[in-house]
């Protein structure tokens, strides 16, 4: 296996790193390989704004109840004490915290007392598909997000908060939560664009050069689309339940925006399903190209063998050592034999030409079926 | 493959040209390649009619509230200021305007305060399949349509307005909106007729000449039917929600007509699903033709090789240089050898004839495949 | 293409002969090839009965309101004036009349004021599958049926009316409507029986003689089952909505009979789905028979080539012209050489026999797998 | 192929023996091949019991209203007068009686006035799959069952009535009806067990001996599972509607037992669906075994041909009759030539061995395919 | 068949060991091979705890009503009297007890008077997949579990009870029931992890070494995933009905935990469906690898045959014994002939090289199939 080849395996770990069966519910099982948390705090109102990197979660306390919206933005889940400290300060439910660290959750919305817990899956494509779980808690005046790794799609949003662009600073925490979810959902579009281009390339590849790398890439494509589908389908459900639940935390105006995010979500599902259908079509194209190629190989073999085997037989006849073979002594015996062979070959060629075997059906692509 | 062959690629861009992830919702991201807008205004009542080409959207103001129905018919989405001017005059919602310029929306109906926003997808077939997003705003006394490119299926409708044919001038804006949607839905029928003919042609092609262009055309057909299906399925949903919502903007009489449009929509879906099933049957026919062909090639090879290889061996035996081969000196040795060879060949031919291999199974179609 | 071969194409016209896109709704677009209408009138009560062929639809007026049930039975849709005259007399809705002449409607039930409009699809099999649209209007005291062509499945019903057999003369128009729909639904059973027999025949054909006509017949079968399915599925829906709607036009007793018709409809769908599954199994049997056959051909080639190619080589060795080949001068050199060849051939035969290649797996069918 | 092979054809008659289209509803069309009816009467209370074979249905009258439960158990539908006599005595609905003799009904529950009509399908496996329609009428104090042929799965139940075992004699007619349905549903389990064993056997057959009988058996298996599925799916629906309808005829206690029968029904559906998935997997295994076998055949051919064709060529070169071929006169020319040939053959063998072609991939199973 | 090969068969017994059809409902049919029961009793409150191995079920009586929670933990179903004794003491319903011993139940929740009966399926993977039915009765102050065999996934839970870790000792019987179900559901994760690893391994195996063990393993994988799916799907339904039923036995707090278990259940279904899609992709990869391999074999054969057959023919020509073949007497005749042959071979090689046949498409993976 080449190194590049391993790239698809991490996706199959979807059943791993669970709390051991039978543990008490609400146990936080920290993955030892998870990066240490980095905490950033954003606090804002329409006319005030504060951004702070925190080294200790205990510092959060001093900012509470001073701004209409507080956003705790945490990257990395590798320290149980930090997570517990935040959970305690904001009174987050232990079952929700268990899901924060078990990073293979399906997207969902759970209501716990006065706060909402939402899980989403943010995707990026950078040589290969990365999917990262984003956990979001929404309270009356705070939003807390937990991400697995540094790096996300929220930078334009952070800029909008910093520069007071758009309506975000004027609105409450629910609009911030919507904006985060919207950014996550919109992160699927550039990724899907990449896959759209892959499919286009593979369509010609499969039709004209059906080799193993082609098959591997089709298989990888199916893998990735399956992973994307697993990530976005539950997102649609969770947005739908958010819209239906009529929660007091979410204003009617934000609900209108959430409906828009829901529409985008449905559109993404639509595109993924279309790509999945195209991908299974690709496999058929690939297999039929392989068959075509086998047909071509067999035709070449058959033509050559069919022409020369009878000729060899004719030569063999006059290579026999019988004493009484009068034609061997004819002056023009040899030229006549050669002529007979030539006519035999010609007869076969005409036969094959009429059957249409002499024109290839697997021509290499020419200029007219370029993209 | 002809030049038309480039046609399938644009369809895969369905994930492109989105507002960048993380932008403020409601941002209008104008596609730089979009054509400049052309605005036509139709204003009519049962006995008055006015048609006007406008160079500046500000001119619309003077026609408002003078006619019971005002239709702003805009082609081309390449100028943000024009779009914003219209949005401001008619108080159109920013989220809806964002969807107007992001021309890869699913068909839908959204209710914003006193107006409705509907997205539909109009199709034409002209060498290749074109699908264009039509955005429609319906207010109490106005209809606004936004199209991507000049050229549409509304000309017969415009003539009916101009010549006061049918009931359209007697009825309100909701009937105009219905008539536009009905024309869009009916635009699918001639396109589907084209595909029906394609399938008929390909059925013979796949059965009797399974070459690569045939495979490519089947694959393109599947592409196009998938695109049509993506366009019409959400249309059915949006018509259904229009019928169910009991909106005050839509009179009971128009509702009756919308039910009819809904029936047409379901009929189109039915035809597309039938065509899709036929298309997957086509691929099977194609692959089984390929197999048949391979069988045929192998049979020819086997017959030729099987007949001549033993004959060559016989000739080889008497071509050996042993000194004590008495038959070589017989007077009739040579004719006997030839006779032996002829009998061997005949025996094989009879064997193959009894196996039925001498009659081709890939003959061009004759009268014998009646049902 | 033979003439018989075209038989399946008419089915693909399902997208044709529509009113041009953009026409005013309710326009009657008469198909120029449609036959001229023939009108028959049945009027009856429990003890009176009248049957009349009408040349002019205006004659209908004199029979109205004289009998509890009036059945206008019209064959052929080729005269707009006749259709319009009937529509006016019975106050039939223009949208319904548009569907009467657009003969590719899905089965449905529409309620228009005081009458019901139902579309059904009647099938017959007579060399090939024919499907014909039957439009039925049910009013308080009348039933009007529109058919595309003369010839239908209603003759036993007409006899029951004429001879006052069963309860039909004693009951109202709704029972006549039910009896017509029941006759249409029951027309599927003999057609399906024909297809059941086709499948049985094809099962042996595909397993023992996988030639192209077999593939064409499987493909045609799939076509026809798809057409039947498209015809009967919406019928089920429309019967269901008829049962659910609790219409005053339909008495509780007739409702009981309609439930029975609904059960038959579901049974037909069940049979069609079973046949469709069997048909896709058929294609698999066909393809695996093809593979089996290729295997057989290749085995014959391999056996012949494998036996004779080494023998030819041995003969070739002693056909070389080296001067120092002592065995050429041995008295028993030649017999020894022949013996060596025979042993070689025998060794290969034993090898193949042990591999099981010498027994065919594609024997022609023998008496034990007859039907 | 054994004689049993005829077995699959009767199943395709599922569209046959219908009342002719257009007959009056409620007509009893007796199948002339149906056996004559045999009537058995069971009458019981907690402490009384009577079992009687009746020759004339008129005898039933004397037993009515004397026992809390009366069970008329009729085998054979070949006499219209008997059926009509029973229908009249118990006031059974003509539509239900029509379904009794049309023995291809889907399982269902219909409510007619004071009695319930239920259709079920009882299966047995005895060389081949038999499915028989059981019609059951349940009234306040009677149960009537109609079967097509003598022989059923009710004998253990009859013994429980005779010997007063279990609670059956203490309870009313609804519990008898439940017990009959439960026995019918439980009759699927031993049949399914037979199919489970078939699948196990076929799994090895398909993998190691992919011949035509194997394909035929897979195809038959699919047929039978499809037939079982058609029989049991509607049974689930009818049990479900029985549970939901809250009928006064059925006591809450019997309802609890019916829920248990419903669970068994769902379990049977589950098993059938599992078997169907395994069966389609079987076809794939069969086809891939065929491919494997073809690969093997081709490898043998290729190895033999590839080794001996070049050798034959070398022999041919020195078989040429040129006068100036110095090596022909060398003393060791012949041994050198033989050595050259041996080395060539060896080179090819090493090449194939390194490609892994010399080890068969279709060996009979050995210990190496553990998981 | 090797011994290992039989491993998948037990799964097909899913239709076996049922109560004989027609038996009285509620009959306990003990499987003679079932192990004898072992009974453990756990009784606890927040501050008291008692664990006891019981030899006689009658001993249970003395512990009743003394502790808020009593857990009877029974392994092995081989003794009818023990089961009956427990059923009588706790008043368990006979239909439920019938399901306890018929160990092929679907997961379900049934409500019987004052207790709940739940069936779940616990899985372990230990060389092969084991699935075991766990029956659980929940009453106000007791939980009774019946398992088929000793050994389960509850040990961590038992430890939590013994050591009073977590909240379990402080809560009622419903929380114990939840904890048991949660442990059962969590037992699927490590099993699925094993299958995820199997799929990863098989992906390379199928692409680079498509032999029969590979096919068998794919087939076994499909078997196992089907079995897992059958086990977990009904679990989701039964948890869902538990959440919906609003039973008084289950406190709102436990309901919150059950919702969490339900989420895990949905996640497991998600993973299984993903694995099932990957597995069918695997079969395609396997088949296309087989095709690739056949192509490769055919190409080798064709290249060798195509090069040497014409050469042999040329040699054959000059091996003929005609007397008048002037070139045989040329001094450089022989070298010229050899040169001609070399050129012919070269021409073919160049032809094949340009066709791309000389580069293998089935090379072991190298760096060139990056994406």
Kindly describe this structure:
With 371 residues, the first copy, chain A, is an alpha+beta fold. In chain A, 50% of the residues lie in helices and 15% in strands. Chain A has eight helices and seven strands, in the order βββααββββαααααα. In chain A, helix 4 (173-186) packs parallel to helix 7 (252-318) and helix 7 (252-318) packs antiparallel against helix 8. The longest helix of chain A has 67 residues, at 252-318. The model of chain A is unreliable at 1-12 and 363-371 (pLDDT under 50). Chains A and E meet through helix 6, helix 7 and helix 8 of A and helix 3, helix 4, helix 5 and helix 7 of E.
Strand-helix topology:
5 copies of one chain form a homopentamer.
Chain A: E1 38-44, E2 49-54, E3 69-75, H1 80-90, H2 94-101, E4 108-112, E5 115-126, E6 128-138, E7 142-147, H3 155-162, H4 173-186, H5 188-208, H6 212-244, H7 252-318, H8 333-355
Parallel strand pairs in A: 3-7
Antiparallel strand pairs in A: 1-2, 1-3, 4-5, 5-6, 6-7
Q: Which value, in Å, is the CA radius of gyration of chain A?
A: 34 Å
The oligomeric state is homopentamer
Structural class of chain A: alpha+beta
Cα(first) to Cα(last) distance of chain A is: 32 Å
Please name the two chains that share the biggest interface, counting residues whose Cβ lies under 8 Å from a Cβ on the partner chain: A-E, 77 and 79 residues
Helix content percent band of chain A: 40-55%
Q: In what range is the share of β-strand residues of chain A?
A: 5-15%
Q: Ranges of chain A with pLDDT <50 over ≥5 residues?
A: 1-12, 363-371
Strand order across the biggest sheet of chain A? 2-1-3-7-6-5-4
Number of strands of chain A: 7
Overall pLDDT score of chain A: 84
Helix and strand run of chain A: EEEHHEEEEHHHHHH
Inertia-based shape of chain A: rod-shaped
Largest sheet properties of chain A: 7 strands, mixed
Tally of contiguous helical segments of chain A: 8
């Amino acid at each position: 296996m080449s190194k590049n080849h391993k790239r698809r395996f991490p996706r199959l770990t979807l059943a791993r790193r669970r709390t051991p069966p039978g543990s008490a519910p609400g146990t936080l099982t920290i993955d030892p390989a998870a990066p240490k948390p980095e905490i950033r705090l954003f606090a804002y109102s329409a006319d005030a704004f504060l951004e702070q990197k925190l080294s200790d979660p205990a510092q959060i306390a001093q900012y509470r109840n001073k701004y209409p919206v507080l956003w705790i933005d945490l990257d990395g889940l590798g320290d149980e004490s930090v997570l517990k400290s935040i959970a305690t300060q904001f009174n987050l439910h232990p079952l929700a915290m268990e899901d924060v660290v078990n990073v293979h959750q399906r997207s969902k919305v759970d209501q716990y007392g006065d706060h909402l817990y939402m899980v989403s899956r943010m995707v990026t494509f950078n040589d290969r598909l990365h999917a990262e779980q984003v956990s979001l808690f929404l309270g009356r005046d705070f939003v807390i997000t937990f991400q697995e790794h540094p790096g996300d799609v929220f930078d334009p949003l952070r800029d909008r908060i910093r520069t007071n662009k758009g309506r975000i600073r004027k609105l409450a925490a629910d609009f911030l939560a919507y904006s985060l979810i919207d950014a996550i959902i919109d992160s699927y579009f550039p990724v899907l664009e990449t896959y759209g281009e892959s499919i286009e390339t593979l369509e010609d590849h499969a039709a004209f050069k059906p080799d193993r790398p082609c098959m591997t890439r089709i298989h990888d494509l199916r893998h990735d689309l399956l992973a994307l589908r697993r990530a976005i389908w539950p997102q649609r459900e969770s947005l739908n339940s958010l819209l239906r639940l009529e929660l007091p935390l979410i204003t009617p105006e934000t609900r209108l925006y959430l409906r828009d995010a829901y529409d985008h979500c449905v559109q993404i599902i639509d595109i993924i399903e279309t790509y999945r259908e195209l991908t299974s079509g690709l496999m058929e194209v690939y297999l039929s190209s392989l068959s075509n190629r086998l047909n071509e190989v067999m035709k070449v073999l058959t033509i050559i063998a069919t022409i020369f085997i009878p000729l060899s037989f004719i030569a063999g006849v006059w290579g026999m050592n019988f004493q009484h073979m009068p034609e061997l002594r004819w002056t023009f015996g040899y030229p006549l034999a050669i002529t007979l062979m030539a006519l035999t070959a010609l007869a076969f060629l005409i036969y094959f030409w009429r059957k249409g075997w002499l024109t290839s059906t697997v021509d290499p692509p020419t200029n007219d079926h370029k993209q």
